Predict the 3D structure of the following.
Amino acid sequence: MATHALRRVFVWELPVRIYHWLNALAILALVATGLIIGNPPAIQTGGEAYDNFWFGWVRYIHFIAAYLFFFNFIFRIYWGFVGNKYADWKNFIPTSKAFFKEMWEVIRIDIFLARNKEHMAVGHNPLAGFIYFMTFIAFMVQVFTGFGLYAAMSQSFIAGLFAWVPAFFGGDFGLRQWHHIAMWFFILFAMVHVYLVFYHDYVEGRGEISSMGGGWKFIEEEAFEHDEKLHQEKAAKKRVKS
Amino acid sequence: MIQAPPTKTRPTYYEELQARGHSRRDFMKVCTSLAAYMGLEASGVAQIAKAMETKPRLPVIWLHFQECTCCSESFIRSSHPIVSDIILDQVSLDYTETLMAASGHAAEAAMHKTMEDYYGEYILCVEGSVPTGADGAYCCIGGKSAEQILQETAAGAKAIIAWGSCACNGCVQAAKPNPTHATPIHKLVSGKPIIKVPGCPPIGEVMAGVIVHVVTFGTLPELDGAGRPKAFYSKRVHDSCYRRPYYDAGMFVESFDDENAKKGYCLYKVGCKGPSTYNSCGIIKWNNGVSYPIQSGHGCIGCSEANFWDAGPFYRRMQSFPGFGIESNADEIGLMAAAATGVGIAAHAIGTNLRKSKLIDAHINEGKESEQEL
């Protein structure tokens, strides 16, 4: 059995990793508190209302996490323009036919499980990138509906920016329903996301899980040689043409 | 800017009230209470009084379409009798099916006279939605369909006030499947300022406040994004609810016959729509400030919000989810989707081990080899 020489590639920069874990934390807090707000458990303490504020605290945590989520999201969009090539916005929004071609490759190999094949992607594979793009849209839905609901009870400037949203959705009823439904997208996404991270780590052995810790992935030497070959071929073709 | 017409010789509101035997003291009282409803400061009282004394009455045409007349009922019961006197009984109503003395051709003639004499000056109040289905056959008055009447009268109106949820969003008759195609006013009339005063019915004092604002200041009241006067619709019922402390404390009524209901805890879990409903029920209340639904132990049903009939059920917190049966809600659908996702993940995990076994074994062997060599 031939062993592979692996090369260390710095994929996820520190800001990307911080973004990832803040986002995970915020979403966890938002979903947990959101489920409680939608259907509060019957904790009966008796006594007087002024002795308690637990539901108020749950909502307070929800709002703080919402602000964290919002600014973190804005930061990530900014980083999509200044970060390294794995953080670039082009990983998420298809701009070429090759993007879709490779996406189909990923579906064939990783979703329909083509026999004993693995797909090589150092950063996001195109399918993952495109699904992250969908999550960004879900983020926006959640930000707009959430702050739209929040605008009525907040004096803050930021919430005030979303005061027009309820009228756009035909009132708070629709807004609340959409906000609640969109939450389930996050839950389903998290399930699949965590599973696939384990899947990639298990099938490909390139350090998928730990990459969000230290930022490193470990890529086979052949991949670099293969890439170099391609580059040389291209350059040769150009030379011939000129 | 709505200005009172200068040419016509119409009495002022104050003159009309004097003629009806109201004293100056009564007059000042009503000006004060209206200023309070409108949220004006103390100096606003004088402004209202002055406007009532000097401005000739505003001609008003009040139309009734597809509705139950509860808006009119609410209005004539607004707490101060002079309020209804001002607008309805005596002073300014030139045409309204419910309350006018004239009938038949005489009534129609009166309406047309107002429309001609005060073209571009009168205020059009519309109560009820307009059924546009079956060429308007569902609501005809005097041989014309509601839509025809609306378009004719709207053409010469200075501004339109949409009274009640019917005129603002269609209310119950626009609930799915909306067989008569009940349509709110703002979807049929364009190019005219429209004030929406939703509610089923709206609070009488709110209605009076809106009319008096138009009379006093000659302008439309400040409106929110949905076209409602901010003075009355900028806060949710929840924000002014006297049971709010129970909400923040997490003390909820679990069912209508439990101990918590007796103690007056928050009605959030038994379907109160106060947190999604913009109205001033908690402040102005109903029946001369006696009570309002939540105070009477029943959750708010959100009657001043668009589509409140379809946003049910009334007695559950979670809105039903369309297309999955009447009792399903977003959480039930979500749980089903999560279960399906879990099954999918399990199947995929098993499939991975079967289909990619050679690949995985190769990696493992390579790893073991490396382990030996180190």
